[in-house]
Amino acid sequence: MSTLEEIKTSKKNLDKAIESNNNESTLQILQNLSQAKITLEILKSTKLGKSVGKLRKHSNSEIQKLSEGLVNAWKKLLDAGASTKKEDDSKKRRNDEEQSSPSTAKKTKKEEEKPKAEPKVVKQASRPTGGNTQIRDKTREMLESALAPTDQVTDTLSAPQVAMDIEHELYTMFNGNTEKDYKAKFRSLHFNLKNPKNPALRNSVMKGELTADNTQDMASEETKRERKEIEEWQQKAAQVSQGNRTSTNMFKCGKCGKRETTYFQLQTRSSDEPMTTFHECTNCGNRWKS
Question: Could you tell me the CA-to-CA distances from 125 to 3, 58, 85, 162 in Å, in that order?
């Protein structure tokens, strides 16, 4: 192996040969360097690569070739040294972390060895019998579809289980009759569960916050507000006899488009504000106020 002093001497001689444009000496020194065992430490200490690197654009083709070969070989040596240093630093850092917090390392090992908890199995309700089973099966199927899992919320309950519970409550509510009232109530529930304006309802049901026996509460805030307005309208209308209502074609029904309406007016606000006009379409029964 070449000594550090030998390589330092060769570098000095190379720099002199380059400065004096002595191609013969330059070529001889490069040939000697290509035979020498040069380590990463020697390269860093002598900065030999800088001197040889300048010769890659030399006018002499043989000097160019020798200098390029040396530089490429030394680059590989530098890359290998950098990779080894990176691995050593990584190992040292891991050792330091383990020594500074041994309790944490032991805890992590214990956690890895700890058996994972078995997934919770949701108990499925048995399929009820009685009534029109075809209608009841279709009801459960559509309710389950309306309660299908979403990406936004993690459900606590199982959609098939909740669908069975709601259907069973409907069946019980109407004493086993699966005709008109049962179907009407189901359509209302199904609409409210799928209503994009009322996502909180579906989430409350699947988290167990709203149970099947509270089906009367399964409506959006907008629907509840509309119901309240209708009830208020009916209360006001009950105060006015049919004879006190005026028939007119001045108002167009927003539902059927006909101009066959009756209206009456009541003072529903303070006396200094205009009266409220209540309209009813005699063609389709639609009601509104203005």
Answer: 86, 89, 64, 9
- A 10 A CB-CB count for 18 gives 19
Distance between CA atoms of 16 and 140, rounded to whole angstroms?
96
The pLDDT, as a whole number, for residue 1 is 45
Kindly list the distances between the CA atom of residue 163 and the CA atoms of 99, 197, 198, 266, in Å, as whole numbers in the listed order.
56, 21, 18, 46
pLDDT at residue 122, rounded to an integer: 43
Contact by Cβ (8 Å): 137, 186: no
Whether the predicted model's global pTM rises above the 0.90 cut: no
Ordered by where they begin, the domains of the chain are 4-92 (1.20.930.10), 133-219 (no CATH), 228-289 (2.20.25.10)
CB 263 within 8 A of CB 282: no
